[in-house]
Amino acid sequence: xxxxxxxxxTNPWWRDAKSIEDDPEIVAWGRAKLRFIPGxxxxxxxxFEPDNTVVYTLRGTRQIGKTTLMKLQxxxxxxxxxxxxxxxxxxxxxxxxxxxxxxxxxxxIWLAREVRDDGRRYIFLDEVSTIPNWQKxxxxxxxxxxxxxxxxxxxGSDAIDLRRAVERLPGRRGSTLEPYDRxxxxxxxxxxAGALDPEIKAIIDSKLCFENRLEIFVKLANGEVDETVExxxxxxxxxxxxxxxxxxxxxxxxxxxxxxxxWPIREDVYNSYMNSIIGEWSRLGxxxxxxxxxxxxIVKSHGSLASWNGMAKSGDIGTYKTVQDSVQTLTDLFVLAxxxxxxxxxxxxxxxxxxxxYFADPFFFHLFNGWTxxxxxxxxxxxxLASSENRGALVESVVAGHLAxxxxxxSPNKQxxxxxxxxxxxMEDGKEADFVYHDGDKVVVPIEVKYRNTARRSLAGMxxxxxxxxxxxxxxxxxxxxAYSEYVMVxxxxxxxxx
Length: 499
What we know:
The chain is of the alpha/beta class. It is 48% helix and 16% strand.
């Protein structure tokens, strides 16, 4: 049974709104070398009509900053004058049953009504996925009107269980045009660059709001170089230096903070994240040795065409089904992303053909590459990135993830967004184009990543698709900017700022 003092103790702003500044998460955020507010904070709507109780979930890998995001949002509410008693935060990492969740909510509602009985409530349920069938508690509360006029944000590190649980809340999540299920992803390159370089941040803030980024991308798809791109090109040396660092740390906030504080990245940082992935994998009843064999195969085939059968045989993993299910598990854990071949007739993925599997963040690549190799993590990363070919492969994976995020931002139907139906690769007559961006309507853009100085000799796959679309292509280069008859070439760090 949860007691009142415990609930009150986790919500000290009920006594004094300024106490949020003493919250451990807020203090740690304030002391960090990298103080970053995720863009998702600006994207989530919390205020609705009183009869509309909305239930969101927030998923993401461990230590990605979900709790910090909640506390930053609470601080913003308090700064905006929201009554402190209209805000509840509670972590359920020690709770075991849906009944305990209901008890916490019921006690909060009773306590709050003694002080304030009007206005919308903002309820943050942290680590709720540690409770089996937690959604039953939410269902009970919603059905009985206990949480009327509330916005609920439920988070958990158990991303798979969290996703499955909300599937059993039909008709009880309220009404919103936004996605109910949000994902806190690693920092994009633009977020990373802006956090580390004030001058770049000023340019991003003034010239690269989402509407501008999408407009610039559409211009590039039509063969036109926007003046903003030309302006960004003036900072190519700075951006290239930032991208080189991003290739080591990726966008994991704690890793970036470690990178800023001390170089090289400490071995314990790698071990901490690798152990968390192994822990999640093992908790699902899977063999860690299988994870290591699979990881080795994904590192080997990273960005290349791969088949479930081929990986199963090469890695001695078992059947194609074992590989398929294991890749899906790592995808659910936000470690991997898979892309499929584009069918230009149907404008649809060809699921039975070979796939391209990328790590969702450069740091995840280094985790698995170091875990399956000899030597320490950082030295393995440095050795890998010393090769220009390897750097190009990792840049390609970053472009893949950023294209998926751009497609999501541009999608008019975010509730049902699936990157597999928007970003592909293309193959015709043995010639491959790295990516195809499809907006779901008329825009089809072949994209090649040529992170080297000479790119024109190997664009055959792009030309094959352009012969069908009669449009323009886009080449992501190392350091060249220019418009040509068939395509536009943009340096990788400049292009990544747009995605």
